[in-house]
Amino acid sequence: MTIEKRKHTARNTKENMRRHFARIFIFVLALAFLPVIFIGAQSSEQWKLPDIPWAFPIRGKVQPVIDERNGPQHVPGSAKAYTQDQIDDLANPPDWFPDEHTAMPKVVSSGAAGGVLGCASCHLASGLGHPESANLAGLSAAYIVRQLADFKAGNRMGEAMNDMSRNLSDEDARQAAEWFAALKPSVWQPVVEIDRVPKTFINMHLMRMPLPGAGDEPVGSRIIELPQDVARAESRDPHSGFVAYVPKGSLAKGKAFVTTGGNGKTIQCAICHGPSLNGLGEVPAIAGHSPMYLFRQLYYFKDGSRHGSMGALMKGVVAQMTQDDMVAVAAYVASLPPGTEEGSSTGAAAETSASTAAGTSDGKTAK
Ligand code: HEC
Ligand code: HEC
Questions:
Q1: What b/e string do you get for 170-204 counting C-beta neighbours within 10 Å, with b at 16 or more?
Q2: pTM
């Protein structure tokens, strides 16, 4: 056995042991929460999208015409060109920077039979996604596979994912999971505390956009995530992120919940999600993910519509949280640096690809 190989084996053994202990630990925690496991489970027939439009977007009835976007579109740094129709072909999404990732499995680039769309359309070729979908970059493959199975079984709601996962083969699920797991997480939507936000509308692709010339309005108790550059977001440019506006005071309030359990209202997240909230074994990374997405999940765990095999562990976490608490927790977690499970919060894998928060003068960008 060469030294290289031996090192590799030793690392694998260590890794296996760590995962083994993480599993035992989670099993013990699961027992502690058993009584709440079955409360609140709903069947998919009863399920309705919660009426909280800032977090669970529905297409605006009025669609202001903003930009015709005729002809070939470009994004900075890429030599490629696609028309808007090509960009919006969910079965064949654009790949602006093919050199930045390994070859995509077919299901990621162009979907599969039975209406399975290319995963890279909604989740982008970087995996970072839009706030109305989800950030998959660097999640563990085992976690991704479990979510796909939960969507399929109706243990987790989300129209697009429920429909597609039913026709997704196990092999395609595995290949997609492994490909997204290998992508690097990065800062994608800086969090900014603010009083007022631009007036907005939801476009045909369920993305929130500023309403041109309409002025602003109080942020209220909402999280408003907007593209840093509207045209580039419409091009599904994986280099152009978002900015998340949150109510003032959210970060300090959220920090108290996350780090101390908020005087017994919840449980410290790091116990299960790892010290930097970048994941532990099969418990997913949450640091630096979209706060709008994070809010939706906290809400789903509480209303019982997300109740997969491991969702039970989140039941006790959210049981006493109000919606405002969830806004604060989501804002704080989103403001933390994304990274890899092993590394510290400043791990080399966390890169800043979207560091320029869109023009906010009175806003304070979270550290
Ligand atoms: C039409 C858009 C669309 C496409 C295409 C799509 N997804 Fe999704 N996906 C979503 C949305 C929306 C959500 C978030 C649901 C929610 O808010 O809970 C999501 C969530 C997920 C999640 C959960 C992430 C997490 O952190 O738990 C996984 C895993 C996932 N998608 C995998 C895939 C894979 C694999 C494919 C390709 C086969 C795919 N998706 C294609 C829209 C899409
Ligand atoms: C007892 C263990 C435990 C604790 C404590 C815990 N979590 Fe979780 N959390 C989990 C597990 C396990 C999952 C994955 C559930 C699944 O597979 O559906 C999860 C999933 C999540 C998700 C969904 C992630 C995604 O990508 O969809 C969010 C958001 C979340 N947790 C937030 C939190 C926050 C915030 C805290 C602290 C206030 C917290 N969790 C504390 C175990 C825990």
A1: eebbbbbbebbbebbbbbbbbbbbbeebbebbbbe
A2: 0.88
Residue ranges lining ligand 2, Cβ < 6 Å? 29, 146, 257-258, 266-267, 269, 271-273, 283-284, 286, 294, 297-298, 308, 310-311, 313-314, 317, 329, 333
With a 6 A CB cut-off, is 235 part of the ligand 1 pocket? no
CA of 157 to the centre of ligand 1 (A): 11
CA distance 363 to 248: 9
Please say whether the beta carbons of 97 and 164 come within 8 A.
no
Tens-place pLDDT, residues 92-150 = 999 999 999 999 999 999 999 999 999 999 999 999 999 999 999 999 999 999 999 99
Q: Judge contact between 134 and 127, C-beta under 8 A.
A: no
- Of the chain, the percentage scoring pLDDT greater than 70 comes to 79
pLDDT, average across residues 151-155: 96
Question: Among 143, 161, 204, 282, which is best to mutate for testing ligand 1, by the most ligand atoms less than 8 A from CB?
Answer: 161
Q: Is 354 in the pocket of ligand 1 (CB under 6 A)?
A: no
Does the pLDDT of residue 290 top 70, yes or no?
A: yes
312 CA from centroid of ligand 2 (Å): 9
Task: Name the CATH topology of 70-181.
Answer: Cytochrome Bc1 Complex; Chain D, domain 2 (1.10.760)
What's the pLDDT band for 43 if we cut at 50, 70, 90? low
Rounded (5°) CA angle 223-248-216? 60
CATH ID of 38-48+186-365, from 1.10.760.10, 3.40.50.300, 1.25.40.890, 3.40.50.150 = 1.10.760.10
Whether 140 lines ligand 1, by a CB cut-off of 6 Å, is no
Ligand 1 centre from 116 Cα, in Å?
A: 11
Cβ within 8 Å of residue 127, ≥6 positions away: 135, 136, 137, 138, 180, 183
Q: How many CB atoms lie within 10 A of CB 27?
A: 9
Q: How far is CA 45 from the centre of its chain?
A: 25
Q: What are the domain boundaries of the chain?
A: 1-36, 38-48+186-365, 70-181
